[in-house]
Specification:
Structural class: alpha+beta
CATH class of the domain at 1-53 and 363-515: Mainly Beta
Helix content: 25-40%
CATH architecture of the domain at 1-53 and 363-515: Beta Barrel
Distance between the termini: 25 Å
CATH topology of the domain at 1-53 and 363-515: Elongation Factor Tu (Ef-tu), domain 3
Shape: elongated
Largest sheet: 6 strands, antiparallel, barrel
Number of strands: 25
Radius of gyration: 50 Å
Length: 515
Amino acid sequence: LIAVLALAYGGYYFGTQNTESSTSNKTLELTTVAIQKGDLAKKEEYNGTLRQTDSKVLNSPMSGVVTYVPKEGTIINFGEVLFAVDNKPVILVEGATPFYRTLDLNSDAGPDVLQLEEALVFLGYAAEDFVPDETFDETTSNMLNALYVDYKIDTKSEVTPAEQVAINLKKTEVENIEETISDGGTTLAQVNDKKKKLDDAKEAATEESAAWKAADTAIKDAEESLTLYRDETNPKTKEKTADGTLDAAIEDLEQTIEEQKRIKALEKGKESGIDATEALAIETAQKAYDDTLESYNEGVDQAAELAKAKEELEELELASKSETFSPTNAYASKTPIIVGSYVNDVGSAVVLNSPLYNISSIGIEVVFQVDATDQETVSLGDSVEIELPTDERVPTVITFIDQVVTQTQAGEFIEVTLEVLNPEEIEAYDQAPVKVFVTTEISENVLYVPVNALLALAEGGYALEVYDGALDTGTFEGESGVDTSYVAVEIGVFTDGFVEVKGNISEGQIVVVPR
């Protein structure tokens, strides 16, 4: 006989029960369950605090009078207005990059442009085939214009008087530079020509009798031309006679001949080397080259100024046509925002960076403390279950384990942070107490039953009341000790109302359990 002392867990009924007394009146309604087989996790219970994440103060990006703030506790979703100053709304958009610069058709490419375009796509302002990128182009401007119309933000409808004045001034600057270049511009070909003449002068001075030969050649060329001009049958003579330039041409040739004869006489019989005449020729060629080069460089500088002025004019004209995005138009956040307590309400005058109200994200986290000696029981990425004030259990994951030990009068602890995996599915608690269940041990492929199926034996240990009838579960209709037998078992892991059992039992056997 196995003497049953009492139920081991839960205290459902008391008294001595054996096969002889099993027919006595029952004090509890009994039911039956099957012995199950699987994994049981031993869990340690901790007290934790559930709170909203990213709590901070929302500041105004502009000065003015607050004309709109949402009600406290409101969840602001992407595309909704966070607040308005001077009736200028600030829209919540999804993103991780704070908006920090003005964007228009002149803006350099960047991730903030991509973030803006993705927001415009999310809010329904893009065509189906539009692909967001980092370039602010005419399509971006048009989408932004449509958004501004819907949110009653001032749009770019026409060129302003101030923009037109700036454009006209820049056009005048461009015209002035172009006129300066056309009046006195020096070409690169002219520079090269002067350089060649300088090189020729230096080369001629290094050759013996180079100047004499040059003078002799020049005399011959001039005399030949002079002979042709004195021939009245020559077409060139007739042409110059007709336009009245013949006498001047003849006089120039005669002067050339006399000058070259003088040079030829000076060079006659001299050794190689640079004489005074050659030095003068080099000096003259050098000056001509230097002057030409300086003039050319001035022209290059003017050309650069012209290119810059034209670029600035193009930017002004683009800006006058482009819709402009200001960092004051939108606020980027990774998640929707929960409105907290006000710092400044409607009607308050604010300046740049004045606090408006407290905010937090819709993300929810749990913090709890583990004894420093038990820190090996928690690891980053571990799944942890929590129990809410409503007794609902939800999954979380460990995202942070503080490496600094906190010392208190109760001992030394480390703080652990959990991320709630589906925050949108639970009520938005903040600073609420919760229970945290950390798995410390897992028994795999074991038999287990509800804890209240255990019966305490008079001689010590535990037993299960196994139903000998048909394999079925439900209300127990049999008679204890007649339709059932008591089987001694060893117990193992307790968790979530179940207990691991070992003994002469098998999966699927039916046991009696107090309801």
